[in-house]
Recover the amino acids of this structure.
């Protein structure tokens, strides 16, 4: 929970400092004292990440059916839609960052824990395939609890679908960048989130497949402190670099320039 989500001002969960909501928003939802990165919804990312006014959403009208006729799923979807003010847990669109055109996908943890069902899988796949077709870089900000169990096998199929779309982008020669945000787990980690050319993470992000208790129970060993945090994973090579919010535009535009080549020559607008 972020200190500015509640009615009253909560202290920073990391350092205990109290700051006003405006001040935290001005710091891109980070703690002005310790730099701790709080969870961020797509609407707030759109305010700082793309060049102002450049984001054009596509695949906006896709919404979930109830493929396995699970009781109560439609109601859950309606509640999530009202809470997150999104039709499902990801938005996709075209935009520019420092003048470089790209395809951007932003996930929401507020919408059913960022779970990947048919709509998330389809939108992510379309974003990757569009990148392949138009030879544009694709940047995805992930946050997810994993597969959407309310869609049964259909949610698991999205892992294969998004992974093959990522392979198409690779074959087309356009680069793929992922920014792992807090938390990224389960079927999203086990598919497109780990297939990028450069895998980045926000500071302090929890990244894993299963939770620590499940792993400890399976392997019968005590795990090192903080082993599923971004900083530990950079050290072990699962993540290439940590990207604080203030530096993300600069880093992404630099990475896009570094990946230009014969298959991906397109220049900034
Ligand atoms: Zn703090």
């Amino acid at each position: 929970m972020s200190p500015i989500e509640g009615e009253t001002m909560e202290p920073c969960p990391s350092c205990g400092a109290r700051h006003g909501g405006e001040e935290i928003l001005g710091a891109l939802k980070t703690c002005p004292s310790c730099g701790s990165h709080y969870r961020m919804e797509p609407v707030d990312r759109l305010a700082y990440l793309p060049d102002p006014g450049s984001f054009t959403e596509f695949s906006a009208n896709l919404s979930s059916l109830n493929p396995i006729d699970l009781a109560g799923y439609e109601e859950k979807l309606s509640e999530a839609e009202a809470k997150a003010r999104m039709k499902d847990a990801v938005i996709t669109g075209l935009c520019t960052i420092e003048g470089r055109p790209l395809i951007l996908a932003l996930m929401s943890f507020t919408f059913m824990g960022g779970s990947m069902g048919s709509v998330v899988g389809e939108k992510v796949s379309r974003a990757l395939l569009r990148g392949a077709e138009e030879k544009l870089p694709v940047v995805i900000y992930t946050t997810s609890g994993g597969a959407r169990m309310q869609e049964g096998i259909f949610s698991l199929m999205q892992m294969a679908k998004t992974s093959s779309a990522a392979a198409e982008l690779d074959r087309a020669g356009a680069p793929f960048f992922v920014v792992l945000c807090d938390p990224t787990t389960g079927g999203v980690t086990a598919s497109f989130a780990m297939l990028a050319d450069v895998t980045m993470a926000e500071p302090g992000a929890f990244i894993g497949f299963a939770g620590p208790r499940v792993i400890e129970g399976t392997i019968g060993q005590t795990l090192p402190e903080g082993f599923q945090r971004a900083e530990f994973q950079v050290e072990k090579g699962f993540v290439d670099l940590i990207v604080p919010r203030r530096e993300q535009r600069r880093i992404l535009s630099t990475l896009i320039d570094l990946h230009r080549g014969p298959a991906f020559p397109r220049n900034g607008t």
In short: Strands lie at 56-58, 90-97, 100-107, 138-144, 176-184, 198-201, 241-242. The longest strand covers residues 176-184. Residues 153-172 form the longest helix (20 residues).
